[in-house]
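Late entry, evening session. Most of the bench is empty. Finally got around to the prediction I had been postponing all week. Sequence below, unchanged from the version circulated by S.P.
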Amino acid sequence: MDKLSALAALAALGQETRLDIFRLLVKAGPQGIAAGEVAARLGAVQNTVSAHLKTLAQAGLIRAERDGRSVRYIADMTGFRDLLAFLMEDCCNGAPELCRPVIEAVTCNC
């Protein structure tokens, strides 16, 4: 991931509703959630949620998959991993053991 992509991802997550959406999709796992259901779960207006979903998708943090007549949104864990890798690229100035707690905290056993 380059600096501009990282900035786009961080900017996308830097807004409260988008952060809530991303966390909701991470929790939902690989089956994702339909756009209308995302809005319902957050108690938000569907048009507003659609704009937020578009921003997150453009930042490479989520992806859309057509499911019949609806669109399901899924957290793009590769995009998120790439963001984390970019942020930790030069971690700990040659002392990787200092980064171990962060790595363990973000490691998923799913």
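Two things to note before I forget:
The first helix runs from residue 3 to 13.
The domain at 3-106 is CATH 1.10.10.10 (Arc Repressor Mutant, subunit A).
Will write this up properly tomorrow.
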